[in-house]
Specification:
Blueprint (H helix, E strand, L loop, with lengths): L2 H18 L2 H17 L7 H12 L4 H12 L7 E9 L3 E9 L2 H14 L3 E2 L9 E10 L5 H10 L2 E7 L2 E7 L3 H10 L6 E8 L7 H16 L3 E6 L5 H6 L2
Antiparallel strand pairs: 1-2, 1-3, 2-8, 4-6, 4-7, 5-6
Length: 247
């Protein structure tokens, strides 16, 4: 399994866990709300909203929930959500990149700093991890009855740089500039990905023994449990042994 497809598998497993505790729905609702405020409530003319709705459908969010989120984003005087990011290090030099959506930046930075400090890490400055992560489009969708050869030819033509079939899922990686064209190609093929995101993929990784790595992953989980946190990326080397711990 390539590094990119392993990351997609990790995200899918985490998505399943998030769904169990309903947090994935709250994340998507925030994505929809932000998208509506930035580009309006019509998905045809708002690519960001179209993507958020596709992710909502991929996560099996009820249609009524999607419509309520769109209406919420259209309301005047609703909570003013802002997207913000934080960068820092967990113990043993593991880089951590946190993406948040918040209506109170002071609360959010206070919480993020506290999580770093209480777990032996440190909050850094924005841009300090730019050499460690690169942004990639990552798509995950069930293989179902797709013809593998025809499907792969179609997505390669749309800019796929890595395609992996793992556990009944196609994981596709694109350069950031091909994220839109890939989304459009999947729409033309009437395929709704289970997830489609611009991810931050580590260029280099840090290898730790299993018990030490599990402590770092617990810190990552604490970040993910914060209501303001949308995504957390790290460059801890995810061994097969650690992957099994996520089952």
């Amino acid at each position: 399994m390539s590094g990119h497809s392993k990351w997609a598998t990790i995200k899918r497993k985490k998505g399943a866990l998030d769904a169990k505790r309903s947090k994935i729905f709250s994340k998507i609702i925030k994505d929809i709300t932000i998208a509506v405020r930035e580009g309006g409530p019509d998905p045809e003319g708002n690519p960001k909203l179209r993507l958020a709705i596709a992710n909502a459908k991929g996560a099996s969010m009820p249609k009524d929930n999607i419509l309520r989120a769109i209406n919420k984003g259209s309301e005047k005087g609703a909570d003013n959500l802002t997207e913000t990011t934080y960068e820092g290090y967990a113990p043993h030099g593991v880089a951590v990149f946190v993406e948040c959506t918040t209506d109170n930046q002071q609360r959010t930075i206070s919480n993020i700093r506290a999580i770093f400090n209480k777990n032996g890490g440190r909050l850094g400055t924005n841009g300090s991890l730019s050499h460690i992560f690169e942004r990639k489009g990552v798509f995950s969708l069930p293989a179902d009855d797709l013809n593998q050869e025809e499907f792969e030819m179609a997505v390669i033509d749309a800019g796929a740089e890595d395609i992996d079939l793992e556990d009944g899922y196609f994981n596709i990686t694109t350069a950031m500039e091909y994220f839109g064209p890939m989304m459009k190609r999947l729409e033309e093929m009437n395929i709704t990905p289970e997830s489609a995101q611009l991810e931050r993929i580590p260029v280099t990784t840090v290898s730790l023994d299993k018990e030490t790595a599990k402590k770092v992953l617990r810190m990552i989980e604490i970040f993910e449990e914060d209501d303001d946190v949308q995504n957390v990326y790290h460059n801890l080397e995810m061994t097969d042994e650690l992957m099994d711990e996520m089952d």
